[in-house]
Fold this protein.
Amino acid sequence: MLQGVSLNVDEGEFFGLFGPNGAGKTTLLRVLTGQLMQDTGTVVTAGVPNTEPIRLKQRVGIVPEAETPPTFLTAQETLELTCMIRGLDDVQSRIERWIRFFDLKEKRDLLCRDLSKGERQKVMLAAAFSHEPELLLLDEPFINLDPIYQRRVREYLQGVASEGRTVFMCTHILEIAERLCETVAFIHRGRVVEQGRLAEVSRGGGLEEVFLRAVEGEAVA
Amino acid sequence: MRQSLSLRLFKAMMKEEWRLHQSLVGPLGSGLFPAMIFVFTAFLAVVTPLLLSRLPTATLLLMLHAASVAYGLFVGNFGSIGEQVMTRRLGQVSMVMQMPQTYPVSFKRMMAVFYAKDAVFYLLYSYIPLTLGVAVAAPMAEASLSGVAMLGVTTFLAFMVGMGLSFTLSAVSVRSRPAGLAMYAALACVVAMIHPLGIIGPECLMPSLGYWASKDPQGIAAAAAASLILASLGVALM
């Protein structure tokens, strides 16, 4: 249950949302993408109200935490279908780019059920990145990726933000988040308990300290 | 030429359905299923004269159509109950049907394509083998080929009504559990009114069965309309 959440993320920002398990991060992402509707207030994502989920999803790339690509399609078929859904041109060249990026050439014709968890995550990321959206909404994007691809994705996301596009990311991997996020928010029991620019919020400390302070109150501070 | 999105989704869902069947019962079992239906129905057709000496034709037709409605209800409901079966058997499963959660395509379009896929898949997977099975045994069963073809059409339409009913029930239940329960109760009432109360005829639930009473094509038109209306209602309510 989310209560009184008010967040404003500017264009071109790399934004990190953090909180303990069950704090409401995934629920918030589902509200932002129009999968769930808030009881009160308004939600505008990439300039589109969440009451228009199809138009909204056209403009953003989403990687949900618990979702995998269709089990009985191959990686190639999945990427083709997602490009078709988005009405993209140059489908094959886009797919080639992401197949190369994630080194999936040998695996592209395997059913997603036969891919490892990390490879499925690569397919989900490739599907979210393929249309170069103005906003990426990523829930644990580094999950199941080995350090090589964590680094590759991290560098890609830094490039996205430097191009003026926006990244909204939830993660528990605070070391990566520290290197990427300019602005952060902490959510606990459905409420935003701390938010601002990383440098101001962390007060010279690390994200872990801020996380513990935000979640456990002043006990750790 | 670029294919329409619905056609691409349809093809993806057909592949997915076939591969899902292969995963559940193995490639051999999956491939042999239509052959089994063919052999089984050919055998049944051969012994039809014997069956008809014990059972009136109307009862046999009623059983075939009722089984088809039940099959349609089962196929349409597989999305909800089947998920648990699949998860138990195959682990976490993600289907094309779930893509609207993440990608810009509507659930309504997905549902409409899913319905069309199920109709075509089960026509090929069950009803064409069934009709062919009866057709090869038609001379021994003392049945005309046109009659066999009509049996294929009317039982398939009964299947479509069952599937449409199931889609509508699922869509209503998703929107409102009490409304869904009320619809299930209404369906149970209709069944009770057919049997044992005998207030209405079975054609109310299986309009295509009506064709066999008077060879009136209105029964077929009514069944086609009923399945389309139910499917459209299911899609609209998603």
Observations:
- Chain A touches chain B through 29 residues (CB under 8 Å).
